[in-house]
Specification:
Blueprint lengths: L2 E4 L5 E4 L2 H7 L5 H16 L4 H20 L4 H22 L1 E2 L5 H12 L8 H15 L13 E7 L7 E3 L1 E4 L11 E10 L19 H24 L4 E5 L9 H9 L3 E6 L4 H8 L3 E2 L11 E11 L2 E9 L6 E7 L2 H23 L2 E4 L3 H14 L4 H13 L2 H9 L4 H13 L5 E4 L4 E4 L6 E3 H19 L10
Parallel strand pairs: 4-13, 7-8, 7-10, 8-9
Antiparallel strand pairs: 1-2, 3-14, 5-13, 6-12, 7-11, 11-12, 14-17, 15-16
């Protein structure tokens, strides 16, 4: 189920992403803060399973509390949980199967499984290919072992529907081209990126210039005009026909006179490029940021097939396509009917991208639908019989705690949790390790046949991080308050 979060300033967020919900909550208790940090850690490590990791940690804490009430020492519980966690990762690795990054079908299944639990689940068939293609375009499947998600820029644009979302091999600027009378489409573009201002220089300190007669005023304006015209001529001389101007804080990055000259010379201008976007832009189009007009040379320019201004509804944006060195960066342009849908679509695509990143890091898949958790629980319960003393009790408790995942899944699907989990456990005891909860049919089926799969890294990360956090909390026997 989804949650509607209302912030103190009145902003509303609709999501079921664990990390987002916990980020918005103002938790005060130090142990609760550890769970928020846990969710963030899962988001960094795997990107998906942020809700699962908190549910598992909560269930393990509940199990630990029951063991403590029986008089078992926290250190004994902690050590047993550590062993159980290692054994669980072993079991998960055993039931996983390898995946080849050239096998697009398997990647699509993983991305679709991630998107199916989101608000935008009905569009998963369209968003999953976008996520898969975006990652595959910025990596080399043969040698890369990680994905830098900063190479994939997600741009939100109000208007249209999620079905209009597209993957662009190039750049998108949400601002329209500056000035009037300039070109709105450039073929065979030579793109320059400047970090200096195309406006009259200002004095370094606060000072006033007193002009006593009109001839002096005329001279000031003429000098200003000559100064700007020289700058524009040098830009044109380098062969530039699309100019990106970094946003300036101290003074106007470009004034009307400069825009007038640039338009006359048929140079398209996009101003107010944010400082944090500079690296992405340079990587995408192969240009070099220029901090002084003296360094504005043809070698510093990037190239692209087309730069055009596109009108969508009552908004305009600039799209750069056909870059000469594709594969460095891509842009995902998300469309949506309102702000809430746009934000949730952005979070969903981010999760799908993280799932594909997990497969690049660790190229193995396992079944979804609660199958891995119940399989681990069955194995650990069996293993606990071979142990002696308190350790056996603790491992058994760890195994039972993992059943919270299929139980929660059954509850969210409107099924009877007790009946469903019992049936699922029986199937796994019989050796059907890919049996899972089929939410659509409301029954236990072979979940691999339903194409419900997830990366191995997500599940192993959930168990390792959750048990680590629970062990940290178990070692604490008192809270010392030093707030005066």
């Amino acid at each position: 189920m989804d949650k509607m979060i209302q912030a103190a300033n009145g902003d509303v967020t609709i999501t079921n992403d664990g990390a987002t919900i916990l980020k918005q909550m103002q938790v005060v208790h130090p142990a609760a803060k550890m769970l928020v940090e846990l969710s963030k850690a899962q988001d960094v490590e795997a990107g998906d399973g942020t809700t699962t990791v908190v549910i598992v940690a909560g269930s393990l804490l509940d199990a630990a509390q029951r063991l403590l009430s029986k008089g078992i020492h926290p250190t004994t519980i902690s050590e047993a949980f550590q062993k159980a966690s290692s054994k669980a990762v072993e079991v998960l690795t055993k039931i996983s199967y390898p995946v080849d990054l050239n096998d697009r079908e398997s990647l699509l299944k993983s991305a679709s499984t991630s998107l199916n639990s989101k608000v935008v689940s009905q569009h998963s068939s369209q968003l999953a290919p976008i996520a898969v293609d975006a990652v595959l375009k910025v990596i080399d499947p043969a040698k890369d072992t990680n994905v830098d998600l900063r190479d994939i820029k997600i741009v939100e644009m109000l208007g249209g529907t999620i079905e209009d979302t597209e993957l662009i091999e190039g750049l998108v600027f949400m601002q329209k081209s500056a000035g009037k009378g300039g070109p709105s489409r450039i073929e065979k573009a030579k793109i320059g990126l400047i970090q200096f201002c195309l406006s009259p220089p200002k004095t370094d300190m606060e000072s006033n210039v007193i002009v006593s007669d009109y001839s002096q005023m005329d001279r000031v304006l003429r000098e200003e005009r000559t100064y700007i015209l020289n700058l524009v001529k040098q830009i044109k001389k380098a062969g530039c026909n699309v100019l990106l101007i970094q946003k300036s804080i101290l003074r106007d990055a470009v004034n009307d006179l400069a825009l007038h000259f640039l338009a006359k010379m048929k140079i398209m201008v996009i101003k107010d490029v944010e400082r944090e976007d500079i690296e992405f832009v340079c990587k995408g189009i192969g240009c070099r940021p220029v901090a002084s007009i003296d360094h504005f040379v043809p070698e510093a320019l990037g190239t692209a097939e087309t730069v055009e201004e596109i009108t969508s509804g009552n908004k305009k944006y600039v799209k750069i396509t056909g870059v000469n060195n594709p594969g460095k960066t891509v842009t995902v342009l998300i469309r949506g009917s309102n702000k809430l849908v746009l934000e949730e679509a952005e979070r969903s695509i981010h999760d799908a991208l993280c799932v594909i990143r997990c497969l690049v890091k660790n190229r193995a898949l396992i079944a979804g639908g609660g199958a891995p958790e119940i399989e681990v629980a069955v194995h650990l319960a069996r293993w606990s019989h071979s142990l002696t003393g308190m350790e056996a009790y603790c491992v058994r408790a760890f195994a039972d705690a993992l059943e919270i995942i299929p139980s929660t899944l059954a509850e969210n699907a409107g099924l009877n949790p007790v009946v469903t989990v019992t049936e699922l456990r029986n199937a796994h005891v019989r050796g059907e390790f890919s049996a899972g909860i089929n939410v659509r049919k409301g029954a236990i089926t072979n979940i691999l046949e339903e194409n419900v799969v997830q990366p191995l890294l997500v599940s192993t990360s959930v168990i390792q991080l959750a048990s680590e956090t629970v062990r940290s909390i178990l070692k604490i026997d008192d809270i010392v308050n030093v707030i005066h």
